[in-house]
Design goal:
single chain; mainly alpha; 9 helices
């Protein structure tokens, strides 16, 4: 069996580095999903009689994607270091699936921008109304996190909110005038950050393409080196 050439060894270590980062990213995604699922400020959203569908589904998607990314990263790392064609083949297969999902989700998201915003706003409104009906403290904590993060308050704004402690802290009465209702702020934030979301998505897609190319090149090089006596 012939050894890999210098360029092929470079691809091998690039593959390892790429997949190590990919595995770490998967770990981060999984950690975020578990944090949202188990944290005291958001745990109540899952335990209520009518959990917000978008949030509920999104958290489990994060957990599933995190696990899949960790598996793919592990296969890529081990396949590169062990020079295992079958591991690299599995890596290519799973990464291709993830790439397809990212492309499909991106196309759907950009062609249904209004629906995405409406679903997010509806999820917030559902949380808000559930709190108003039940007075659940866990929902209150979750709402305060959202309000502080987006600097908004309720479905009508700070001036018409009956529970001032739900709103971001305002030192003067005049400051309450600029605290908008949350559905409006959600729409503004989404469309103002759309180019950033698109840029991140394109960057992830390009990185995945390079991962697919490198895995194919390395797999072919390994097979070729094992055929040479």
């Amino acid at each position: 069996m012939a050894a890999l050439s210098g360029g092929e060894r470079c691809i091998k270590f690039l593959m390892f580095a790429f997949n190590l980062v990919f595995w770490l990213a998967g770990t981060a995604v999984l950690a975020i999903g578990l944090w949202l699922k188990l944290d005291s400020q958001t745990k109540g959203l899952f335990e209520g009689p009518d959990p917000p569908y978008v949030f509920y589904t999104g958290v489990y998607i994060l957990i599933g994607v995190g696990v899949l990314m960790m598996v793919v990263g592990f296969l890529g790392c081990c396949g590169a270091i062990q020079e295992s064609p079958w591991m690299l083949g599995l890596f290519f297969f799973f990464l291709l699936i993830i790439f397809g999902i990212v492309i499909a989700a991106g196309i759907w998201g950009f062609s249904n921008q209004t629906k995405v915003v409406n679903d997010i706003s509806a999820t917030y409104t559902q949380m808000y109304n559930s709190y108003k009906k039940t007075g659940d403290e866990s929902l209150k904590k979750a709402l305060r996190v959202i309000h502080d993060g987006l600097y908004c308050c309720g479905v009508k704004g700070a001036m018409e909110e009956t529970e001032p402690d739900l709103c971001p802290r305002a030192e003067q009465q005049l400051e309450k005038l600029i605290i908008k209702k949350c559905p409006e702020v959600i729409e503004e934030v989404f469309f103002s950050k759309l180019h950033i979301i698109g840029g991140v998505g394109i960057t992830i897609g390009v990185v995945m393409v390079f991962g697919l190319i490198f895995s194919m090149l390395l797999c072919c090089a390994i097979r070729k080196s094992r055929e040479v006596v």
